[in-house]
Amino acid sequence: MVSVSRRSRGYLSIVFVLVLLVTGCASPHTKALRQYAAGDPAQAEGTLEPLLAKKDKNAVLYLLDIGMFRFAQGNCMYSNKAWMKSGELADYEPGALETGLELFKSDAKKRFIGDPVEHSMAFLCVGLGYYMMKDYENATVAFKKSLEWDYSGDVERQGDMVITNLMLGECFARNGESDQAIVAYRKALRGNREFVPAYVGLCRELEKTGETLEAEKQYAELRSLVTEDYSNALDRCQEGVLVIIMSGSVPKVKKDAFVGAFRQRSEVSTPINDWLIEWGDDPDALEASHGDAMITHLKDQGGVTGQAIRKGAQVCARECLPLGRLLIPSTEADVRYWSTLPGDVYVAYVPLEPGLHTIRATARNKNGDSLDNYRQTWHYIPVAEGENTPLVIISHNNLQKLM
Predict the structure, then answer these.
(1) Same-domain pairing of 47 and 98
(2) What gap in Å lies between CA 375 and CA 314, rounded to an integer?
(3) Which terminus of the chain is less hemmed in, N or C, by CB atoms within 10 Å?
(4) Statement to judge: residues 1 and 111 lie in one domain
(5) Do 42 and 189 have their domain in common?
(6) CA atoms of 299 and 307, how far apart (whole Å)
(7) CA atoms within 13 A on the CB side of 291
(8) The CATH number of the domain where 165 resides is what?
(9) What one-character DSSP code corresponds to residue 41?
């Protein structure tokens, strides 16, 4: 009778554990991500930091997320430290892998190194942090590293991240290197021919180098993309605010014939279609230019191609084929994305005279309706004579909590 009772308790324990698994006993990492998505990055950082002390094999992933948690709070210096530390732990050189197959074989021997696109994004954020601190030398180094990680089997797409090339151009411009700035702005425009901030920078630097005719040609392109009021503001103001919006999250891959072949993200697809930037007492408005869609930058870096190959190798392993036995990964191989990777980056350049200004950012859905939970207002943004001010916005589900 006692043995039956013990057995029953054993069964009940198993059932209880299964119920916990099914209902979702959230891990600290999952809890932190939910706190971050709800607009409380400080609480998310506090939840996740204790995991680093345990020397968990997911340390690189945690550091990438902690860096974003800090960045969302405006702690640029400390966010940079977390991202730089993640790069040291990864011990992984960019540009070494040309195909998803090579990435798979590398992942089989590495500890949660992350896809290249994750590190490309991390160095972009490092550069933004340095840029906001006016450390343009270190920002330049970080942006260059971001482009090095953004590699592809297609030479034409090598290092083509629009936002990174724009910011590299801004760094060169701040350091008085107009020729290099022009090259960077042109590369950004090759990625997006309607990228207003790159036209603004390109025209400015062309004028500095005395290329008047080319500057006029590019100004004509710029004016065709904006309103007359905006054009007049550009003529009137030599300074402004560069608004950078890290928007939403990478959407889940839709279930199709390749179901299960891709790493799925825990976040839901973002409802954001675009952003409207307003400024001034009698608000002018400008649609932010689409700087980058992170999902397109997976390229063949292991995101799409690599995951399909990984899945195929797993099938091979189950079927005991030679390819499967050769490529079967270790239990420490990387199997997830940087959880805070934004789905899109938008940029807007607002021409403003020196002084303190108010900037409003409003997200809109595909129907053009405003999304109240993503609306945010920034007051007393300083614009100094001869300088552009960077304003980086993280689009949490509830931005009001950050105000």
Answers:
(1) no
(2) 44
(3) N
(4) no
(5) no
(6) 12
(7) 27
(8) 1.25.40.10
(9) H
Q: Residue 142 domain-assigned?
A: yes
Instruction: Give the span between the Cα atoms of 173 and 269, in whole angstroms.
Output: 36
Q: Which of 18, 46, 78 is the last residue of a domain?
A: 78
Q: What percent of the chain has pLDDT over 90?
A: 43
Distance CA 51, CA 59 (A): 8
What is the token pair recorded at 306? 């690599």
Residue pair 181/152 in contact by the 8 Å Cβ criterion = no
CA–CA separation, 198 vs 173, rounded Å?
12
CA 1 to chain centre: 61
2/99 same-domain check: no
| Of 78, 108, 139, the domain-final residue | 78
Which residue in 324, 267, 280, 286 sits closest to 105, CA to CA? 324
- The range of the structural domain enclosing residue 6 comes to 1-56+68-78
- Domain co-membership, 44 together with 128: no
**Contact predicate 112/58, CB 8 Å:** yes
Report the phi/psi class of residue 284: left, alpha or beta, with left for phi > 0 and alpha for psi in -120 to 50. beta
Q: Is the pTM of this model over 0.90?
A: no
Domains held by the chain: number:
2
What sign does the CA torsion over 46, 50, 52, 58 have? Answer: negative
pLDDT at 339 over 70: yes
CA–CA gap between residue 64 and residue 122 (Å, rounded): 7
Burial of 181 (0-12, 13-18, 19+ CB in 10 A): buried
DSSP E strands: which ranges in 167-294?
240-247, 274-279, 284-287, 289-293
**pLDDT exceeds 90 at position 116:** no
| Domain-embedded: residue 246 | yes
E strand or H helix at 133: none
Residue 380: how many other CB atoms lie within 10 Å:
9
